[in-house]
Amino acid sequence: MYGLKTEACFDSAHFLTDYYGKCENLHGHRWRMVVYLRAERLQAEGTMRDMVIDFGVFKRDVRALAKELDHTFLVEEGSLSATTIQALEAEGFSLTLLPFRTTAENLARYVCERLRDQGLPVCRVDMYETPNNCAQYFFE
Ligand SMILES: [Zn+2]
Q1: 29 belongs to the catalytic site
Q2: What is the pLDDT of residues 6-28, one digit of tens each?
Q3: What is the pTM of this model?
């Protein structure tokens, strides 16, 4: 079994719905996502022969996703009223609407699914919301 790992960071705001504590209020994190690839065999031909995948391709795709989420407000769909969403957008704020509660666990799964959809053999994503706290998602 072979593996590759790379990481990227993004700064985003969020809040947790139905949570009774500090995280129910709007706040930000420097999210650090560490992405792991796994492959049983190395590629057999072409420029990626004897590689899992070219690091350049892997880093480009991970960084592009981080850039998409960077400096946006991660909002669970349905957690804010339509008028609030419209008001934030009218002020020029950048929102990322997501169909799930914006926990680190769900964001780790989201990153895994997005990158797998692009063809990367992702097997694990670690999503740090602080330097000490990390949620992990494993693709089985
Ligand atoms: Zn948080």
Answers
A1: no
A2: 999 999 999 998 888 888 899 99
A3: 0.94
Q: Which of 24, 27, 68, 71 is catalytic?
A: 71
**Of the options 2.60.120.330, 3.30.479.10, 3.30.70.100, 3.40.50.1820, the CATH number for the domain spanning 2-138:** 3.30.479.10
Query: What does the pLDDT look like over 40-86, one tens digit per residue?
Result: 999 999 999 999 999 999 999 999 999 999 999 999 999 999 999 99
105 classed as catalytic: no
| φ, ψ dihedrals at 59, nearest 5° | -65, -40
CA of 29 to the centre of ligand 1 (A): 6
